[in-house]
Design goal:
Blueprint (H helix, E strand, L loop, with lengths): L4 H32 L6 H5 L19 E4 L2 E4 L8 E7 L2 E4 L7 E2 L5 E2 L4 E4 L4 E5 L5 E4 L4 E10 L4 E17 L6 E8 L2 E7 L6 E7 L5 E7 L2 E5 L2 E5 L3 E5 L9 E2 L6 E3 L4 E5 L6 E5 L7 E7 L7 E7 L3 E4 L5 E11 L2 E2 L6 E7 L6 E3 L5 E3 L2 E8 L4 E4 L2 E3 L6 E7 L3 E10 L5 E11 L1
Parallel strand pairs: 11-12, 21-28, 30-36
Antiparallel strand pairs: 1-2, 3-6, 3-8, 4-5, 4-7, 7-10, 8-9, 9-11, 10-11, 11-14, 12-13, 13-16, 14-15, 15-18, 16-17, 18-19, 20-22, 22-25, 23-24, 23-26, 26-27, 26-28, 29-31, 31-34, 32-33, 32-35, 35-36
């Protein structure tokens, strides 16, 4: 069938019209973008404080430096604009988002953080954000923080940091440096916490947690903080805590639950095993005022490399899958959303041991006269010894003795020694008894 030429011509004309329409829309879009985003200064140049806006590339003009002075103190105007924080450490999955970006990306150690940047940790993760060598916030897992303000005032000799915390838990410290004071404002649901560290005052250590019911718990471990909500304020001092619920008045501060005393395993104990790691039961003294406890087990003494973190209502916790290595553990008492300081840290080691204990038995005669025979020997100290399934007493140096009752004829005496890892060594003797 031969196609109608008029039909082909009409189709070609329609394609040309569609192409022309798309091209015109594209041109209009480009013109609109030119109007909305004029060329000239790039975003990176706008972010720079030392380049004048409107100057680009080789023509970029350095911004004038304004020297400020107050009460004998001087400072550069550029220093008053913005300061940065640093992602000093991270564990597992941590992501960040720049203020000018939409997508989240991997947060790398050493990256700088600026105003309106966001940092988020995920399950089993943590992030350490530092402002200097002494001041930081340590974000626990599933925590989201947005930087609201980072600035330095060269005249007042102070630094100010502001954060918005949307979820999770963090611990921080604020410490004045030299003659410079440090201030931090941390906003959570329904409340703002102001923390200040002065050169003449000690540092402030604090914890903040956004709870599942949208309340916020602020705890001061050392120093002082002021919590504001609904045009009221409450001062928190050392070992005090407060839980704020949105749309409710501020309650009075409470003292923290007392620190927990650990019981077992003993500090710096070494636990051997042969094939499978043993189940280890961690035990601590119960508190009459606690509604629960939090135990942390980590590979490092700073508890950044956590192996386990559990909340329990009992004063014990069992773990049966720790591998060979050194571990650290600690426990805190909880009272509803409030949590006391952690206990002293204890250390333990798991050591895989596949070497059987040494077992030496003095020479045993093959023929004896009588109905009994005393055998003597030595094994590794701390081992358990059995003779024909009968447990024997073992001295501190590993020596032991056994008096066997003989029957007429051939007697088989089997001595076994087992160590705490489960390794076993056997010694068998055959004795012919004659009356």
């Amino acid at each position: 069938m031969i196609p109608d030429m008029r039909t082909l011509g009409r189709g070609a004309l329609e394609m040309v019209l569609v192409a022309a329409l798309v091209l015109s829309v594209f041109v209009l879009l480009l013109e609109g973008m030119d109007l909305a985003f004029p060329t000239g200064t790039t975003l990176s140049q706008l972010m720079r404080r030392d380049v004048l806006p409107g100057t680009t590339g080789a023509d970029a003009v350095e911004a004038p430096h304004l020297l400020l002075s107050r009460d004998g103190a001087t400072g550069n105007s550029l220093d008053a604009a913005g300061i940065v924080a640093l992602l000093a450490d991270r564990r597992n999955t941590v992501k960040s988002k720049r203020a000018s970006e939409i997508a989240w990306s991997r947060a790398d150690i050493g990256m700088q953080l600026f105003n309106r940047d966001a940092v988020q940790t995920f399950g089993g993760s943590s992030a350490l954000v530092r402002f200097d060598e002494q001041s930081f916030i340590d974000m626990n897992e599933n925590t989201l923080v947005i930087i609201r303000r980072l600035e330095r005032d060269p005249l007042l000799s102070e630094r100010n940091a502001g954060f918005l915390m949307l979820a999770g838990e963090l611990r921080g410290r604020l410490l004045a440096s030299g003659t410079e004071r440090v201030r931090m404002n941390l906003a959570t649901g329904g409340a703002e916490t102001e923390i200040e560290s002065l050169p003449a005052q000690p540092s402030t250590e604090f914890k903040v947690r956004v709870n599942k019911d949208r309340s916020s718990t602020i705890t001061v471990l050392d120093g002082h903080a002021r919590v504001k909500a609904r045009e009221r304020s409450v001062d928190l001092h050392e070992n005090q805590t407060i839980t704020i619920t949105p749309d409710q008045d501020l309650p009075a501060p409470k003292n923290l639950p007392q620190a927990i005393s650990l019981t077992a395993p003993a500090n710096r104990v070494s636990i051997p095993y042969r094939d499978l790691p043993p189940k280890i039961t961690f035990v601590w003294n119960a508190s009459s005022t606690a509604t629960g406890y939090r135990i942390q087990i980590a590979r490092d003494a700073a508890f950044r490399d956590l192996i386990a973190e559990e909340v329990t209502t009992g004063a014990h916790f069992a773990h049966g899958s720790l591998k060979e290595g050194r571990y650290y553990w600690r426990v805190s008492a909880r009272r509803n959303w409030e949590e006391g300081e952690f206990s002293a840290t204890r250390e333990l080691s798991l050591v895989r041991d596949v070497t059987p204990p040494e077992l030496r038995v003095e020479s045993v005669p093959s023929d004896v006269t009588g109905t009994s025979l005393t055998l003597r020997g030595r094994t590794d100290p701390g081992s358990t010894v059995f003779a024909n399934s009968e447990p024997l007493g073992v001295a501190a140096d590993g020596s032991f003795s056994y008096t066997a009752k003989l029957k007429p004829g051939v007697n088989v005496i089997v001595i076994e020694s087992s160590d705490s890892a489960g390794n076993v060594t056997y010694h068998s003797s055959t004795v012919n008894s004659r009356k």
